[in-house]
Amino acid sequence: MNMTEIERALRELRLSGIADTLSTRVMQAQAAQQPFLETLAAMLQDELDRRRSRLMERRFKRSGLAERLTLADFDWRFNPKLPRNACFELHTLKFVGEGANALIVGKPGTGKSHVAKAVAYQATLQGYDVRYVEADSEFARYGLASTAQQAEQLKGWIEPDLLVLDDLFLARRIADVSAELLQAIVHQRYKLRRAIVITSNRVVQDWGKYLADATMATTILDRLMHRCAMLEFEGKSYRLKEAAARIAMTPESS
C-alpha cells in the first residue's frame, strides 16, 4: 500500500485519529530513526486522544450546558463569605459517585448557577452523563407536551448520572403538573441513587407555598435532603456589580 491507500484504509476503519497525523508521524519516525513499536504507539495514542476528545464533546452537547464554566473563573474575592470549601468539595464529584445531592440556596446574583454549571461541566470531563435544566422554563414546557413527549422528557431527566435543576421556583408558584414532575424526578432518582444539584433563590421552608402542597414539599425534601450537601450563598450580586460597571463605562451623550 502507498500512503494514499493507507490513509483511505484508516478512514474506512474509522481510525481518523491515526489518519490525521500519519504523515507527521512517518516523517518524525524517519528523522529520529524511531523503532517501529514506538512509532505505532504514538499513532495509537493519537487515535485514543481523538476518540476521547469526540466523546467529551458529545457528552458536553448532550448535557444541555451552553458554557464551559469552571471554579477558576469565579471571583471568590467579591463575596468572601461564600462556602468556597464546600463548592470545591462538590467539584471533586464524590457526591455523584455516592448518589448524593446538593442544594445551593441564596440571594440572586451570588454565583449559585455558576458553581452548579462548573460542577456539571467537570462531571462531563470526568465521563459522567449530565443533564443541565433551567427548571421553571423546562417544567413549563413539559406541561405543554404530549403524553409520549412527557414520558421521553422524564426518562431524559431520570437516567443521567447527574441532573442539575437551576433556578427552581424562580417564578415562585409552579403549576401542579410541574410540582408532580419535580416529585417524580426526586423520587425516582432517589431510588436509583443518582445525584441532583438544585439551585434556588427560595429557602426550603417556603417550598410548600410554591408547590401549593405542604405534604408534597415534605415528601420531596425528605428524599432530597437524606444525602445532601446544603450550601447557602449570601452577599452582593455579581450581576448588579457588572451592570453598574457597564453604566459607569457608558459615555454620557452630549
From TrEMBL:
<dbReference type="InterPro" id="IPR002611">
    <property type="entry name" value="IstB_ATP-bd"/>
</dbReference>
<dbReference type="InterPro" id="IPR047661">
    <property type="entry name" value="IstB"/>
</dbReference>
<dbReference type="InterPro" id="IPR028350">
    <property type="entry name" value="DNAC/IstB-like"/>
</dbReference>
<keyword id="KW-0547">Nucleotide-binding</keyword>
<dbReference type="InterPro" id="IPR027417">
    <property type="entry name" value="P-loop_NTPase"/>
</dbReference>
<protein>
    <submittedName>
        <fullName>AAA family ATPase</fullName>
    </submittedName>
</protein>
<comment type="similarity">
    <text>Belongs to the IS21/IS1162 putative ATP-binding protein family.</text>
</comment>
<dbReference type="Pfam" id="PF01695">
    <property type="entry name" value="IstB_IS21"/>
</dbReference>
<feature type="domain" description="AAA+ ATPase">
    <location>
        <begin position="98"/>
        <end position="231"/>
    </location>
</feature>
<dbReference type="InterPro" id="IPR003593">
    <property type="entry name" value="AAA+_ATPase"/>
</dbReference>
<keyword id="KW-0067">ATP-binding</keyword>
